[in-house]
Every structure is written in structure tokens, then in C-alpha cells.
Amino acid sequence: MASTSDVPIHSSSWSSEQAPLVGYLSRKALPIKRNDAEPLTREDIQYDLLHHIFSDTKTVFTSQAPGTSSKIHFCDLYVNALYHSSKCSKVLKDKMVETPAFAVELAKISLLTNVGRINTTMAFFPEMKTALRTYHPVPSLQKTDGNAQDAPRIKNCLKAALLPSEIKSMPPSTPEEILEKSRARNLPPTSIVNLVFVLANHAAPLANTHFDPPLNFLDLFLPINISSADRARAFLWLIFHYLEGPGQPNPYDDDYSRQHPGKVPWLRRLTDPEMKLENVDSQDEIKWGKAMSSQRNAFLQKLVSSLENEKKGKTVSSTPLKAVAAEPSNPRPRSSRHAQESIQNKPYIHYMPPEQSHTLPPSGASSNLQHRPVSNNSHGPERNMLQHAWHVISTTDPLLDSDEELMDEHVRLDYTRRVDIIARLRGRPPTPPPNESLLESNPQSTAGSNSDSREHRWKNVQVWHQ
Fold first, then answer.
1. Which of 345, 354, 411, 447 has the CB geometry, 3.0–4.6 Å to 284, for a possible disulfide?
2. Secondary structure string (H, E, C) spanning 293-316
3. Burial (Cβ within 10 Å: 0-12, 13-18, ≥19) of residue 266
4. CA 172/CA 333 separation, integer angstroms
5. How far is it, in rounded angstroms, from Cα 242 to Cα 165?
6. Where are the alpha helices (DSSP H) in 211-282?
């Protein structure tokens, strides 16, 4: 990153460059708002800002990894915080170790989630089915064929990225608490992730302390007419100021911050032509984003079509439960062979980096890249118990966790049958029939009745299992 401290700057130039800020947004407009399947461009995520932050090479931050106290640069500081989070899965950790570029891409998306630019309604893999989130390809940050995360998982990982001393006690929640610990040389005073949360939550109170009106901490991450390099420098200045202490020489100082203690380095305003030169999407990224959007639309069309076919099949082939229980000799109709073959011929989604291909290969095409099966949601006639169990283990997508869309008609029917069987196995109903008092006066008759009842219930169980 270029250093402005090496260039003589005069106070008169600072005042003359006080141009009005273009694109200033309020706290409510902080999250990125895009429709489903719409790519997040470099301007949306402020790619140049992230590049300057994570490419900084100054090893000035105290390592927060357990058992180490060396100085590292910001990229290692943030990536290590994600890696040591208790909510970071083993699969994700292995991917971060095997592919360092993926770890940096994940860290950039995580920082945007950390400050609130990406909220928990976004996901970044096209086979996402829940209606509570929207899918968005991020071409500039998905070049390593593996960033299949969503914002809720990322935020859970961030919340659990604490120092060992903060796991059992509450971490600092205000800037004053963090500064108090750093002044006492209790380093690190808090985790880098918690510091970003605190700075984002206290952006308004800290605005006059560190910025000139009308700027605040969150404006550093918005599309605004300020140089990306200067915003990155101001961000790193704040991180050093709070993590290492305000009394330490700040390596990100410039002449302006030295002459105005407590203020971030000078933020140079850009003209309209200069703004157009930043955050420019490459042609490969544009093509890849469109290809993934088309893949998402095709997936949604198949999903809607399968739901419509399910409703039609339900009205034609569904049989009332009472009729099935009353005819133990008739076996339950089995699924068609076509429904069974659809489980084995599931389509695949391929994550294609922009550098390797401009378009996606056809479904099922051979590729050396990693691929994931898409959950097949096709439905045939009513399934028996074995067929339903096979369908669940064959088609459930582990990426969906507890998404509501897994509750299809077959699952609800399965639960209804289970509840009905449990109710029949309980024995007599809660309200005894009128003639039960007569049976109680004849123990032999009662025993025979109970035996017949058990035999009848066992037949019903056998019918259900068929």
C-alpha cells in the first residue's frame, strides 16, 4: 500500500479538498440488497478496499493464536481468528489449510459479514432451497472452487472467534473497555473479530472521535467517493489503535493523523472519473456470474416443477389412512421405477473459477473440479417405510441443516402414520366405551377382550409395515 506520509501534505490542501461526499448511506442502508441469483459485483463488496486491507504486509499486530506472541500482518490475524473459532468445522479448516487462497477469500466475505454489509439472508451456493435466504454468486471471491458457505454459518463462526480468556467470560463490549486493556498492555485486549463488531456497533459515537463529519467507521465499507487505499489505511489504523494501544507509534500514521491526534489518516476524495477506475469487474467474472445465475434459475425451475408434480400425484394416487388399515390383505402400492432411477441420476453443480472456464459444463459432465450433488426433490406415489427411509438418506442435502423445505408431503404423511400407530398401541382410548362397565364385572370376558384387542393392534402394525 502506498504511504502518504512520504509525500509532503499541507493543511491548505486538506481544507481545499473538502468536497461533498457522494453516496453517503445511513446505517439502515448498510446491508447489500440484491434479488435472488443476482451476482455481487466488485463495487457491491468494495473489492479494492478488501484487497488493500488483506494485502498489507506490515507485521505489527500481536498474534492471537494460542501459545504465540509474535507480530503478524492483518491477513494472518483475521484468517487465524476464523480458523481457531469453535464453530469452524473440520472440513472448512482442512480447506483453509489446503488452499490458502480460499482462506483469504473466506476472510474477505467474513469481514463484510463482520461489519454488517452481508446479512444473514444471503447464501453463496446455488442449490440453496430455503425461502429465508437468497443466492448470490460472488465472482471476484469465488475463484478457488470451494466457497460454498452462507452468511448464517459465517456469522456463527465469527461469534465464536474469541480469545481463550473470553470463552468463559464476557468479551469487552465497548471501545473504552478495549482501550483500557490495551493501555495496560494486556495484549491482545480482545479478538480481532470482536473488535470489528464493537467498532461497527459504536460507529455513531466514535464518528467525531476519529472522523471528520459526516463520516463514520461503517462508511469505510460503502461505495463512496473516497480512495479505496485511503479507506483501507484508515481501517488498519483503527485496528492498531485499539489492539496495540493508542500510546504506541501507529505504523499507519500520516502527516494529518500526527497533527490531529485521535484522527484517522487523511481520506482523499475522488472525482467521478477516478471512481470509475476502481472496483471494475473483469469479463471472466461477468461471464461466470451470469452462468451461475442461469444455473440457479434452472435449479429453481426444476424445484417448482417437482412441487407441482407432487401436488398432482397426491390428488390422483393418495389413499386415506383408514382405508389402508381396513384392508390388510392389499399391499401398499410401490413407487414407480422411474422414481427409483431419478435418485441414482441426480444432477451435479460444478463450481467453475473464472480463470479456468467461461461457461459451466453440462450436467453430469466429467470434470477434475469438486462437485456436489443437488438434492433431488422428485416424488412418486406413496412410499412404504423402507422406501421412505431410502429416499431420505439418498436425497437429503447436508448443507441445508434444518431448512423448512425438507418437510414435504411424504415426511408429513410419515409423521401422521407414526402418531396413529402410537395412539393405537396405547390400548383403550382415553374415554371408555359405555359397555366397558359390563366387561369389568366379568374378568374372563375382559381378559379375552384385551387379548383380542392386542391381536387386532398387532395386525394393524403388520399392515402399516407392509
1. 354
2. HHHHHHHHHHHHHHHHHHHHHHHH
3. buried
4. 62
5. 18
6. 228-243, 255-259, 272-276
pLDDT band for 354, please (50, 70, 90 cuts).
Answer: very low
Computed from CA positions of residues 437, 441, 445, 446, in that sequence, does the dihedral angle turn out positive or negative? Answer: positive
Distance CA 193, CA 77 (A): 10
**How would you class 365 by CB atoms within 10 Å of its CB: exposed for 0-12, middle for 13-18, buried for 19 or more?**
exposed
- Residue pair 342/376 in contact by the 8 Å Cβ criterion: yes
Residue range 392-447, pLDDT digits in tens: 666 665 544 444 444 566 666 776 777 778 777 776 555 554 444 444 444 444 44
Residues in the chain: 466
Read off the pLDDT of residues 177-211 as tens digits, 9 standing for 90 and up.
999 999 999 999 999 999 999 999 999 999 999 99
353 torsion bin: left (phi>0), alpha (psi -120 to 50), beta (else): beta
Say if pTM beats, i.e. exceeds, 0.85. no
Look up residue 56 and give its three cell numbers.
498489507
Closest Cα to residue 107, out of 140, 62, 141, 133?
Answer: 141
Q: Which residues contact 116 (CB under 8 A, 6 or more apart)?
A: 30, 31, 200, 218
Closest CA to 246 of 221, 234, 263: 263
Place of cell 381396513: 326
CB-CB contact of 34 with 136 (8 Å): yes
